[in-house]
Amino acid sequence: MNACAGIGWPCVAVAFLGGCLALYADEPAPPAATAAATEAEESSPQLFSGQVVFLKDALARRDVETSPETAEHVVLETDSGEIVPILADWRGRAFYQDEQLRNRKVDLIGFRHAGVPYLNVIAVYTFNEAGERTYTDYWCDICSIPMYEIQACECCQGPIRLRFQVQDLPDYIR
To answer: Are residues 41 and 53 in contact, defined by beta-carbon separation less than 8 angstroms?
Structure first.
């Protein structure tokens, strides 16, 4: 007896889709997908050290005039003098929001995408007055959860605070 007997069109549809999937199973991935996968494999987190400042200030120190539009751009001025723009994403956004994170020595773990100048920050380390490296995030004392930008707690909607934890860099960075 046929396995689909009495079941009707759903079984036929599944059989058809299964056959179509089998036709394309050995087909190579499109070039764009292959390039993206290669880029992701090649980009590994790196350490970037320096100070986070406003772009206008970094340029002024180099006697470069700029327009007011650059006033809100945030960059990392590396220890070697390079200016690296910081992506305002889930982690880098805090530098745009919180003046306590700017104009101080930082170690940032992040990566740059091929052809894109922006630093994609994934971890922030600042240094305290004693020169100790501290992992830096935001913390809700009620819910005990970390956050990465200034906002109300995602859980209780209460206040959060900037938190500094003395900590070495992760082993994968050394």
So the answer is: no
Helix extents (H) in 102-167: none
What kind of fold does domain 44-169 have according to CATH?
Answer: OB fold (Dihydrolipoamide Acetyltransferase, E2P) (2.40.50)
Q: Report strand pairing: 145-147 vs 161-166.
A: unpaired
Is residue 163 helix, strand or coil? strand
Q: Give Cα separations from 14 to 1, 3, 5, 27, 149 (angstroms).
A: 18, 12, 14, 21, 46
What are the residue boundaries of the structural domains of the chain, listed by start? 9-38, 44-169
For 101-111, what is each residue's pLDDT tens digit? 999 999 999 99
pTM of full prediction above 0.90: no
Q: Tokens for 158? A: 């209460």
Residue 36's pLDDT band (boundaries 50, 70, 90)? low
The number of C-alpha atoms within 13 Å of 43 and in the hemisphere containing its C-beta is 18
